[in-house]
Structure formats: structure tokens, C-alpha cells
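[Q] Does anyone have a clean C-alpha cell version of this?
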Amino acid sequence: MKRLNNFIGGEFVAPQNGKYLDDFAPAIGEKIADIPDSDASDVEAAVRAAKAALPGWASLTLAERADWLDRIADVLTAQAQTVAELESLDTGKPFRTARDVDAARSISNFRFFADLIRNRKAETYEMSDAHNYVVFKPVGVVGLITPWNLPLYLLTWKIAPALAMGNTIVAKPSELTPLTADFLAQVVQQIGLPAGVLNIVHGTGPSVGSPLVSHPDVPGISFTGGTVTGAVVNSAAAPLFKKVSLELGGKNATYVLHQRTNTNHHFCRYQQ
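[A] Here you go.
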């Protein structure tokens, strides 16, 4: 039985309250792991670690940060089979889908943004009386909250550009599918990513997501999930004038019906 811990300041640490949640494999209905049932104290520790790491990470050149993204992609490529196995176990999706979609896209997310910043050209605009420069700066510590359906795919889709542009991160993966987020933490520890640049705090939305969104030292939030929760996120972030990215709603819900003679009736999809 796996016991996951939070990844804060480059180390795996137990939740400060000592509480854990059960993680089940949906395809077989069996418990496969204990995951931290973290709270605001763990979020606070992760934000402090990310804030401390920010000056050093932001001071790296684009080429240096691109090299770090490629190092992460290198290990994910070498461990693609493991990523697919974990994702299939944790989400219940077919192994082939986890391999060809989730694992593959997680790698390409890091490759894409490494290539983007490595080849970025300076932007300047001439006027008759002025010379204008476009300057890109990190937002700072950003909070990333991801759903259960594409765990590592969507987590890396947020992590890669945030790291590329010099931000440090506190991420909250879904408590329903935490295994590949934990694996990614192992990868960044293995390659020696500077401590505090990427922090992962496991737990529920009310206990972890809420204090992360409302934290005054987290000026940027990216959330993917339900529309109702997104409205709560936006309401909490707005008074602090945070930069917020919301990807909300869903489609292609699948209803599993009683078995029929005609296999075409086994599954019915409804698109919003």
C-alpha cells in the first residue's frame, strides 16, 4: 500500500495534521494509497518554500529554464510506461489511452514550452518619437489546481509554462487521482530541480484549494474544474486582484446502461 506525502521545499513531508485520505482504483474498487488530507498549515509551508525559491528561479535565463524543462521531459520519456500504469490504475482509463494520451502529452508539454522560450525573440516596436520594448516578468508564486480526468496531462500543461516564465509553484492535484503528481515530484527531486520551485500539496478543495486561492502571497491562480467551483475560486481571488485562469465546464459525459443485446446501446454519450 502506497503512502503519499506532500512535496514541499524539495522534500517529501507528512501533512502537519497527520491525517490521510483513501485513494481507490475505480476499475477494481480497491484502495491503492493513502494521501495527505492537508490543510492551510501545509499550504502556508508550501507558499513559504515557493516564495523563498522565487528570486533564484526567476533570475535564470530562458535557456537555463528551458534546459530544466527538457530534463524533466527526458525522465518522463524514459519512465513513460510507469506513468501510463499509474494513470491507468488511478483513473480507471485503459492503459493504451493513458500511454498514448496522458503520458505522451505530459512529455510534449515540457518539450513545447522549452522550445518556445529557447527560441523567443525580443519584441520591440518603433514609433516616430519612441522605442518600445516588450518585457516579460514572472507573476510570482502561482497556485495550480487540476481535476481528476487528465491528472498529469493537465498538471504539466500548467506547470511547464509557469516554470518556463520564471514562476514558482504550489500545485494541488485532485485528491481522486494523486499518483502521477506524486511521481512528478519524485522526478523533479531526482533531477535536482531547486528546492521550492515546485511544491505539491495533496488534499481536498475546501482544505487545500481554498487557502491556496485566498493566500495573499499567491498572485496567480490557474484552475481547471467545474463551473460552480470556478465561481467560488473567482470570488475568492477577485478581492485580491489576482491573475486568474479558469477552464470550466465539461462535455461528453458517459452513461453506463444495463447490458442490451445490441452492443450499440451499451454506452450513450450526451454532449452539452
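[Q] Thanks! Anything notable?
[A] The longest strand covers residues 30-36.
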